[in-house]
Amino acid sequence: MVALPNIPESHLRCLLIQPCFEQTNYWNFVESARAIGAKATAPPLGLMTVAALLPDEWEFRLVDLNVGPLSEDDWKWADVVCTGGMLPQQPGILELIAKAKADEKFVAVGGPDPTSQPQIYEAADAVVMGEGEMTIPMWMDSWRDGNPRGVFESVEKPDVTTTPVPRFELIDFNDYLHVGVQSSRGCPYNCEFCDIIELFGRRPRVKTPDQFIAELQKLYDLGYRGWVDFTDDNFIGNRKLIKPLLVALKKWNEEHNYPFVFSTEASINLADDDELLQLMQDVQFRYVFLGIESPDEETLIHTQKRINTVQPIIERVRKIYAHGISIAAGLIIGFDTDKPGTDGPMIKFIQESGISLSMVGLLSALPNTQLTRRLSKERRLIDSEHNWISEPGAVYELRSTESKDQTISGLNFVTTRDRVEIYRELRSIIEAVYSPEAFMARVMDTTKRMNIQNKHIPNGWEFRRMFKGFRTIAWRMLTDKRTRWLYIKNFIRAAMMGPTKFEYAHTIMGSFLHFDLQTRKILETLDVSIDYAENHAPYPRSIKDAKYQAAIASNSLPIAESCGGCSSVDSESVAHGF
Ligand code: SF4
């Protein structure tokens, strides 16, 4: 092991490593990135922020394994390795820990999965849990006291107004489809399945306008132009504080000739705030990801997502389109209250809403969520080795032994309905909504409704990427006989709507390359899951299964109900709003 200095404020070479995500999943638009000549979707904002929080005396290199392999030169160079990430990156993080231990290098891990399941990462020298603004100083203090090793945890959430500007200079912009920034953390709502509120809390914390503009200015000064994604948990979680930030952004945009277009993730009540929508349109927001989850009101109430029931979802979706903002949506099946034949209403909703980028997946009980705690009490959890955990209250670990793309993993619990029925419904939804005909119809529906007021003029670098993307999309659409005529038809119709709508329609049509590839993989995997559940699974196929009923009958533990209720806390947060 390299001898560490007694105080961390010494010259050290720190290698920041972003482990791989699955190369193929619905959430990783790797095909879209490749179409424009990039290698990955987004750079590791967390690691760039960590670099800014670590001592100024440290020297950094950042290696993103989604972009390229780890070189021997970078590895040998490092005194300290910092890595971490989310559940799908768990195998990669564990591999890096093992490699570091074998080569006697000091390794520290952090990020959402080490925070939710620190016990899995106990081989690391330091497990820096939670938000780095709190726990990196704790790690440094302990180091100064002579112990750089340990688990560093804080129950307190940091004040993000002191978060430094991420070290964007550590990445090569050419490698990515877009870059990320963050203006807030946390979400006021209380969805039962959500781990964000466990990790970042329900009191959204927002950066100051000046602080946030300094981040954009740094990107601008480094020469970046184009797509910037706000990686906030819920961009409108604190509307009172986000509006002044948007006002400042509007002014900065005007002064800098609109160098960026933006995307983010938000709750659907964005559609209920005209002022906010107008501001987002003015500053050139182009995409928003909405957690729609289900078109079924009973299910939304059951999963404590009442904000989605306040107004009809399709009306809200169309209002967002009318402000020039396109929608990607998360939809889930496998809730306790889903009814037989959930696929029909889900397909109808997706087509009527025109949401081209609909990520439909299976419900997953993530560690440390209200859902997992309830399912544990109800003795319904299933571990990564397919073992049914029939002991209530047992510590639950989710080992990422295979893909944790939510579309094809999930259902890690005994379902209320026969799980084979759920798999078949997901299969039917995916086949229907990602058929070329259905996808292309949604593209045109949205293109007609979108009211884009474009103020961003791409620079030469962006034009070259766009041209490359255009060529790749056109070539692949025209050489595939399933898409050829649909593409030509949409191409002509969109071209007649003007250049801005044409560019939008062509970009969204291009994302079909990504969805088509993933769909084929997901359908194959679902067939394997169906076969396994029908013929091999050791756990009950549903709560009606005799095995589950016998276990429940053996004592008086709570039995799964077909419908839960919303917590009063949720109602409170909706009533008060932010
Ligand atoms: S709206 Fe629900 S799912 Fe989305 S971040 Fe908030 S609590 Fe989580």
UniProtKB/TrEMBL annotation:
SUPFAM superfamilies to which the protein is assigned, alphabetical: Radical SAM enzymes
GO CC annotations on file: cytosol
Cofactor(s) required, per the database record: [4Fe-4S] cluster
Coiled coil: none
Record has Manganese as a keyword: no
Swiss-Prot/TrEMBL keywords: Iron, Iron-sulfur, Metal-binding, S-adenosyl-L-methionine
Protein name, as recorded: Radical SAM superfamily protein
Organism this protein belongs to: Rubripirellula amarantea
